[in-house]
From TrEMBL:
Name of this chain's protein: Ferredoxin
Domain FAD-binding FR-type: 20-122
Keywords: 2Fe-2S, Flavoprotein, FMN, Iron, Iron-sulfur, Metal-binding, Oxidoreductase
A single GO molecular function term of this UniProt record: metal ion binding
InterPro entries, A to Z: 2Fe-2S_ferredoxin-like_sf, 2Fe-2S_ferredoxin-type, 2Fe2S_fd_BS, Beta-grasp_dom_sf, DmmA-like_N, FAD-bd_FR_type, FNR_nucleotide-bd, MRET
2Fe-2S ferredoxin-type domain ranges (all copies): 247-332
Length: 332
């Protein structure tokens, strides 16, 4: 199947690797860019240059109330002094988006970790970008890059209604006919069959949006060449654990073995043993806790690793992933 979910780059935030930097940035601008979506510009209070990033990257934002969330960078990657993010209000969410919309004011300070990129744009002759709603954010910088490198590309952009679709005017003004805007209340569901029915060698498909859209695109890309499709999910795919019984996790470098029960995550059990592992989302969607696996078979429950990376079973995201085997050995 020509499917490749988000790809992990070489930054492995384990004890043997440097941790992502964290800086304090200031909110320099805040605008409503669609119904329920605000765009924020963040910059260093002293005008210091910010870490570089590549299309598809996200940052961890630690809000003044202590909550941390991940947001894709959607500004100009060649501007070294500011980051732009866009935040969708999620009424049934955990409160981070409501805080950003209702309380985060101009001049407020936030902690920013990263940037990290688990959704990189790989070289290709042609790209087909498919965005659903706020899923447009990581794709914005990708299509600028595709334009800059002279690649052929098109964007299919869906959303509930025109008013809910952020950056719609910016896209159509800059890129004209390369962009097809298809609000659901005018056009119905995205016509994926028309866009994806014929496998196109040399074309990479990048998709970001809600889970039903990703599932539909994955189905439509069955039959495409391997790794043609790359997707980014906002939340980890929920699935029942394969193994319900407790399992043992050996921490090879620290010489300890912990028992993981149904009530605990591997990450919690490891920390209870006094071994620190960096984490951020703790939902299997950011990649921060990526940990090398030396023996055993993980039960991958994250939304970061690509299919071939899962099959290799040499790393896992212990905040959500568990074990298929009675014993796992981690390089911790
Ligand atoms: Fe984000 Fe584990 S902390 S994937």
């Amino acid at each position: 199947m020509g499917v490749d979910t988000v790809v992990v780059q070489s930054l492995l935030p384990t004890a043997s690797q440097p941790s992502p930097s964290t800086v304090t940035l200031e909110v320099r601008s805040k605008h409503v860019v669609a119904d329920g979506v605000v765009s924020l510009t963040l910059a260093h209070p002293d005008g210091v240059r910010l870490p570089d990033w590549t299309p598809g990257a996200h940052i961890d934002v630690v809000l003044p109330d202590g909550t941390a969330r991940q947001y894709s960078l959607c500004g100009d990657r060649w501007d070294p002094y500011s980051y732009r993010i866009a935040v969708l209000r999620v009424p049934e969410g955990r409160g981070g988006s409501a805080y950003v919309h209702d309380q985060l004011a101009l001049g407020a300070r936030v902690g920013v970790g990263g940037p990290r990129n688990h959704f990189p744009l790989v070289p290709a002759e042609r790209y087909l970008f498919i965005a659903g709603g706020i899923g447009i954010t990581p794709l914005l910088s990708m299509l600028r890059q595709a334009q800059m490198t002279g690649a052929d590309w098109q964007l299919l952009y869906g959303g509930r209604s025109r008013a809910s679709m952020a950056f719609r005017e910016e896209l159509t003004e800059c890129h004209g006919r390369r962009v097809q805007v298809a609000p659901q209340d005018e056009c119905g569901l995205l016509d994926l069959a028309a866009w994806l029915s014929e496998p196109a060698p040399g074309t990479k498909v990048y998709c970001c949006g809600p889970a039903p859209l990703l599932a539909a695109v994955e189905r439509a890309c069955v039959g495409w060449p391997p790794y043609s499709l790359r997707t980014e999910r906002f939340t980890a795919a929920a699935a029942d654990p394969v193994r319900r019984a407790p399992f043992q996790v050996e921490l090879r470098r620290s010489g300890q073995t912990v028992t993981v029960t149904r009530e605990t995550s591997v990450l919690q059990a490891v920390r209870q043993a006094g071994v620190e592992v960096l984490s951020s989302c703790e939902q299997g969607s950011c990649g921060t806790c990526l940990t090398p696996v030396l023996e055993g078979t993980p039960d991958h429950r994250d939304s970061v690793l690509a299919d071939h990376e899962r099959a290799a079973n040499d790393c896992m995201l212990p905040c959500v992933s568990r074990s298929r085997s009675a014993r796992l050995v981690l390089d911790l």
